[in-house]
Amino acid sequence: MSNDHEALLDKGREDDPKVEFERKEGEPTAAFKGASWAALLIGVAAYLIGLFNATTMELNEKGYYFAVLIFGLYSAVSLQKAVRDKDEGIPVTNIYFGISWIALIISILLIAIGLYNAGSIILSEKGFYAMAFVLSIFAAVTVQKNIRDTQRARERD
Question: Which of 5-19, 31-45, 89-103, 112-126 has the lowest mean pLDDT?
């Protein structure tokens, strides 16, 4: 008897049209886009929550680490865009390309030197900030790449 009931339920499901999203060629999958955004949000949120909860850090020190994060995110996205533009034949001046590289290198040096010289932070917290910073930078580049790939795939049509 239960088999008849299950058959009726399954039969009703067959009539429902399934909505399928057709992905354009070259467009990242929804799962990859979601994972990239999640990584960015997790990295930035963890970094900021860590700064907020740092009781031994002075406000100016928290501001320094916040500014370095924002500078790092911006410089990474800017460099990724410059590299991508150059690869696609879009003109990029050498000075902008060089400044983009220098800005990213400086942001990484600022976080590394800041954490190395931070006497009020224990080693495990230094590692936490470094890993949250790296995760955020990598995720920002990936999100920017996904946005660019999606835009390019939709423009082909």
Answer: 5-19
Task: Report whether 90 contacts 154 (CB < 8 A).
Answer: no
Axis-axis angle for helices 59-87, 123-155 (nearest 10): 30
pLDDT of residue 57: 87
pTM assigned to the model: 0.80
Concatenating the DSSP letter of every residue in 19-53 gives P-PPPPTTPPPHHHHHHHHHHHHHHHHHHHHHHHH
Contact 47, 129 (CB under 8 A): yes
In Å, how far are 34, 49, 116, 136 from 142, measured between CA atoms? 11, 22, 28, 10
Asked if 130 and 111 count as a contact pair (C-beta separation under 8 A), the reply is yes
CA distances for 25 relative to 15, 111, 124, 145, 151, angstroms? 30, 39, 44, 15, 11
C-alpha separations of 68 from 28, 61, 95, 96 in Å: 30, 11, 22, 20
Rounded Cα distance between 79 and 98, Å, is 9
